[in-house]
Q: What sequence folds into this?
């Protein structure tokens, strides 16, 4: 590599497994091992594990921790007053522009854990800490010492149970709890980015390789790279920071109104977001399906031959066997069933607006009852 | 992995000549670099193509590549099976995964292509 890329504690494991490594947000990460489609299907049908140790982990502790975070993030922390529960939220600037999307875990008394995108680690840390009160909150960037492994798929819980031993009860959906997996102290969070049931496990970096190997000792477990992570999340219509949202987009346009705690007193960006909500957004993030070719980031979206937007995220859906995409389009073209086109290099192909998820049935729906 | 009876170009296409007709596909190296192929866009039979020009595109989940013709001529047959089953390119790149057949207008162009030992040396440098 010509420039310095960072390595997770699992780097040597990936190389030993023959992974194809790529630079992702300054990290040397596995994009695939056996193949993206094979790994994708392993997660939909059995269980896959992902190294996501590049993600950022911040911890906030103290009597003012909750109030401070309430003023920064857009969702309402009153929803996670119960210890061990978690919440998805965006945090915005004063104009409502999305700085990042996060999961906030209420890990203990007066204590919150925030997991953020690797690419935004420094921006988020600066933003969060610069908006804390002078006293009353202790903040720690634990990213370097914390590893994160996602274990996802219909068999994920049975694998984790095999390492946790008799009597282990998985945390409820969007909850987090301590556990010991194969003698390693961990936090098990029932969250994920694939649309399948499963967990994300945090541990000290020094234990990451041992945990990874213990997981791979189960024959039903497939190591999966960032390629499959992307196709899996896109089939569910989960937005990706940097592609589907950024500082130039507000959460209403991004389809994240459901995450806004507009009943709470105030948070950064609230006034701007309320104005956008009342006026109605000018454009909206929609799902698009195509029958031919593979739509990709940056391709033009057309209506009756006129450019109306660009593909934010696009890929080939291994489950459906055709191309899928997310794109911002004018609000009057955002209704499901609207017929648009995508310019895929030399060709213009038909694209139909639909409401994600593209893949409707997964182990998550099955276990939601 | 690289049959001896084929000729190769630096864009990783192969050519097999059978009775004046050139059969064209992509090499093992190319399909491995691409990963699982999900879409192959091929021309129509009857189209003409020049050596070194693009005749189509091939896409995997992560990337897209142009397909370049190693020879000049008229396309007489196209492998329509790749429309429904593009993964054949990965499974059998030199057999069922062929792409087009061309009646060559200038067979001397074949002399410009690499023999298997030259091609193996070429990809050893690229890898």
A:
């Amino acid at each position: 590599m010509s420039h310095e890329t960072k390595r997770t504690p699992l780097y040597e494991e990936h190389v030993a497994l023959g992974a194809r490594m790529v630079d992702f947000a300054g990290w040397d990460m596995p994009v695939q091992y056996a193949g993206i489609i094979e790994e994708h299907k392993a997660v939909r049908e059995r269980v896959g594990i992902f190294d996501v140790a590049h993600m950022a982990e911040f911890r906030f502790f103290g009597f003012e921790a909750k109030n401070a975070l309430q003023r920064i993030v857009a969702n309402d922390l009153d929803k996670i007053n119960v210890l061990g529960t978690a919440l998805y939220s965006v945090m915005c600037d004063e104009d409502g522009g999305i700085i990042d999307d996060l999961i906030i875990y209420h890990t203990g008394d007066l204590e919150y854990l925030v997991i953020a995108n690797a690419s935004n680690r420094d921006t988020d840390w600066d933003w969060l800490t610069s908006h804390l009160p002078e006293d009353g909150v202790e903040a720690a960037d634990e990213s370097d010492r914390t590893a994160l492994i996602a274990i996802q798929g219909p068999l994920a819980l049975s694998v984790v149970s095999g390492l946790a031993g008799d009597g282990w009860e998985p945390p409820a959906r969007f909850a987090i709890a301590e556990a010991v997996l194969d003698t390693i102290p961990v936090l098990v969070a029932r969250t994920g980015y694939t649309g399948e049931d499963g967990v994300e496990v945090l541990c000290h970096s020094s234990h990451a390789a041992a945990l990874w190997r213990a997981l791979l000792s189960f024959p039903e477990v497939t190591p999966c790279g960032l390629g499959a992570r992307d196709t899996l999340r896109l089939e569910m219509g989960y937005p990706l920071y940097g592609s589907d949202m950024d500082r130039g987009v507000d959460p209403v346009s991004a389809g994240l109104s459901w995450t806004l705690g507009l009943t709470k007193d105030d948070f950064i960006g609230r006034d701007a977001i309320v104005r956008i909500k009342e006026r109605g957004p000018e454009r909206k993030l929609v799902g698009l399906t195509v029958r031919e070719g593979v739509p990709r980031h940056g391709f033009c979206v057309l209506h009756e031959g006129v450019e109306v937007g660009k593909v934010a995220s696009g890929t080939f859906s291994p489950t459906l066997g055709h191309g899928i995409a997310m794109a911002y389009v004018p609000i009057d073209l955002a209704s499901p069933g609207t017929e648009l086109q995508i310019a895929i290099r030399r060709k213009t192909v038909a694209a139909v607006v639909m409401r994600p998820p593209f893949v409707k049935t997964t182990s998550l729906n099955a276990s939601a009852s | 992995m690289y049959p001896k009876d084929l000729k190769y170009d630096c864009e990783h296409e192969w050519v097999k000549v059978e009775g004046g007709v050139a059969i064209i596909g992509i090499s093992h190296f190319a399909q491995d670099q691409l990963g699982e192929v999900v879409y192959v866009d091929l021309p129509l039979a009857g189209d003409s193509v020049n050596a070194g020009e693009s005749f189509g595109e091939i896409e995997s989940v992560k990337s897209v590549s142009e397909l370049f013709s190693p020879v000049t001529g008229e396309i007489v047959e196209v492998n329509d099976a790749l429309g429904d089953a593009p993964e054949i390119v990965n499974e059998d790149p030199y057999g069922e995964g062929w792409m087009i057949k061309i009646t060559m207008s200038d067979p001397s162009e074949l002399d410009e292509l690499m023999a298997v030992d030259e091609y193996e040396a070429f990809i050893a440098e690229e890898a």
Observations:
- The domain at 7-126 of chain B is CATH 2.40.50.100 (OB fold (Dihydrolipoamide Acetyltransferase, E2P)).
- Helices of chain B lie at 28-34, 81-84, 88-91, 116-126.
